[in-house]
Amino acid sequence: MLPLSPISDAADAVFLTCISRILNVALRNKLAAVKNDIIRHDTEFVMAGTSSTFFKLASHDSVGASVTKAEMISVYDHQMVPPASRGRVYYDRILALTKDRRCPLCGFGQVSTLDHYMPKTQYPGLAVCPRNLLPSCSDCNKAKLNSVPNCASQQTLHPYYDNVDGEIWLHANFEKRTPVVVEFSVEKPKTWTTITAMRVRHHFRAFNLARVYSSEAASELEGIKERLTNLVDTCGAADVKSHLAEEAKSRAKAGKNSWRAALYRALAASLWFCHTGCKG
Ligand SMILES: [Zn+2]
Hints:
Elements: H1 11-19, H2 25-32, H3 35-50, E1 62-63, E2 67-68, H4 69-79, H5 88-95, E3 113-116, E4 133-136, H6 138-144, E5 170-173, E6 183-186, H7 194-206, H8 209-234, H9 237-252, H10 259-269, H11 271-275
Antiparallel strand pairs: 1-2, 3-4, 5-6
Bound molecules: zinc ion.
């Protein structure tokens, strides 16, 4: 999970820009009249983010007294997503928040869409709230669908509010047999609260990260097998260990809990792998 800073635009400014090209004047005026409700929903969302209490946000069927859920979803679908729409500038800026377009939810896929942290079908007041919109790969977007946190431990991590990259928590594990099958697990650092550990594990499950990382690790091992075999045969296991440790250090620069950093840490730490397992 990669921490990010959100775009700084106010929720009402984004909302008013989105609706500014709606041709139906009555509808446009009705939407503009709920501007303060949009600000309130954004304020409540930011407070929930800073206190990790998204699960306490109340779902709602309308915004203000008059704007329906369908009308708010339409603002997002027709005034923010289409390339020629007025709100698309915000959509594109959120898409571009990550380095190399890497998905902040899995740290792996390519960003291709925006994900509503709190689904617009149950929280229409947050449909175009920039703090509720996350750059996401299509797999993460599909994995989460319309799930809503119902307690503190069932909240997936939110890249604008949660930064868990201060300590190492992602670990790769494998048995001493070839081909090496790597599994990934979340292990709680001592400084974390139980709730933080439960949230990270929930995030890991919600986005199927164990399966995805294990599959990527298998490809990575296949790709480095020949090189490591040559290295152990010509220079010995100590050089293999040194090479793997350097890789781990280098990969950690992109996030110490990236799957590659965890993989290379585990490989470098295994005498069996450096002597024998590296040959596949
Ligand atoms: Zn993703």
